[in-house]
Amino acid sequence: MKTAVEEVRAAPRIHYGLIVLALIVLVVFGSLGLGRFGYTSILPAMQDGLKLTNTQAGELQSWNLVGYLVTVVLAGILAARYGPRVIISVSLFLVGAAMLATGLFPFFDAARGGRFFTGIGNAGANVPAMALVSAWFGAKRRGIAAGVAVAGSSVGLMVTGPLIPAILNAYGAEGWRVSWYALGALSLVVFVLCALLLRNRPDEIGLKPVGESAQEGIQRDAEKRASALDWGLVYRSRVLWHLAAIYFAFGFSYIIYSTFFVRYVMKEANLSASAAGALWLQVGVVSTISGFIWGGVSDRWGRRVGLLGVFALQGIAYLVFGMSHDLVAVYFSAALFALTAWSVPALMAALSGDVFGARLAPAALGLITIAMGVGQAIGPYLAGAIADATQSFALAFIGAGLVALVIGVGGSLTLQPPQSVM
Hints:
This protein is an all-alpha fold and 422 residues long.
């Protein structure tokens, strides 16, 4: 018979990798779920409060994404050199401070600065956090782990969906400013947690990655013995630039949909603010499983199969949304998007680790995210200009659908099975 003490000692401990994964979810929540997608819920009131045109509304989001774009490579390089923990923590502090500042700015030009610096923090936190998945999880668990990580964006939708309308109802014309204060404060809470609890690698605390195979362990030991990071293995890889093209299609198409979703269903499908917020909340709830589903599909049947499924369903979602204001079409489109929402970033994070290994994954993910960032920066501005010219966002959503189907699906079809370059 075992004593009670012996039974406690024999009980399995929770691997710290699961704690790190929970923190990564919070990083994605604070940086993207609040810092980027919070704008979707605040936009209608902010647009009215600052008297913005549709083009200006799109431009504010584009400035956020320009900040993201100019930082993604630097974030990956700094994280690979100095460790993700410091870079993530500093970036989350910047996200929170910039959102607080956005609420303080009384005019358009200053608000652009707030959105730009929020974007810098978004990239500095999100890219290293997603790359951490490769350090803490073996290849057979990496897709699902990355799928769980991106659920932080869904949590952001679930929080902002009901929170922002409640703040707007309570504070009236100044509600959009208070909304930014609330989101900024939440991001600063995440900053404190990550600064205290996040760890860069399992070996820092005497552990191995979750689900690591013997062969992966040998490769990891070889990476640690390397005297320098071989950046040429990253930027000279054809696979990397193939992935970048696919990621561009995702960035361009999804950001149009997610940025103008609430504004579109309120102004063109005639939903009330509370109904639009409730629908966005439902998208957030369902989308929590999107990365988990498609990450699991990619672990079992390959990353290409996962990408094909996601882009096909998202392309249909965008086309349906642009072609009909009918509520059935709106809900059908929202359901398809929710089931696939954050899957592509999860698959790209997994692919970066598959091809380049845990040590170079942050740099590789940073480079391909440049292409996604270009798509994201172009998308909202172009969509806003189209809406001002046509008095509707319908054509912008149709264009997003065509990009997802032609470049996303087409690029995924020609993607070869990943082979490690290490």
